[in-house]
What we know:
This protein is an all-beta fold. It has strands at 4-5, 10-11, 16-17, 22-23, 28-29, 33-35, 40-41, 46-47, 51-53, 58-59, 64-65, 69-71, 76-77, 82-83, 102-104, 109-110, 115-116, 121-122, 127-128, 133-134, 142-145, 150-155, 161-162, 168-173, 180-185, 187-192.
Amino acid sequence: MSYWSHETAIIDIGACIGEGTKIWHWTHICAETQVGKHCSIGQNCFIANNVAIGDRVKVQNNVSLYDGVVIEDDVFCGPSAVFTNVLNPRSHVERKNEFRSTHIKRGATIGANATIVCGVTLGEYCFIGAGAVVTKDVVPHALVAGVPARHSGWVSHAGEMLELPLSGNAHATCPRTGDRYSLSGNKLTRQSAP
């Protein structure tokens, strides 16, 4: 076994777990799940069938990932983040054929207690503020916060705030890395690394 799991974790036969991954206390990983290399899956998590997790992903405590969630490499998913699988659940109405996929792109950060409504895509290196409720797609590098989540700024690959307007034409430098970014309309791109 090339990964480590705590003795209380339940890993169903058939789950594919990458080298160097750690799975902590009271977590359940279903059979048709793929977890990448060097991930950390926190305490009391549930990962359903048909979930794909990339490499170096950190899923903090008390997170449930339902069918159709795809998480790319280098994503941080904060404690008690919530993912849904249908838009309008009712206990007395069967909606398993209405599950919607949710796609979390490379390098995204999801803050503690944020809710990600099914069917959305979170763009590369975006930052979801703690407690936010995300009801629509988030563009790459956007900082969103609030209920419902609204675009309130821009972040670099390193997660640092960039001094930029929400839209227009402007340039900024990451205070941590020195990377240069260019804003054109509502699209932010990294122009160069130092």
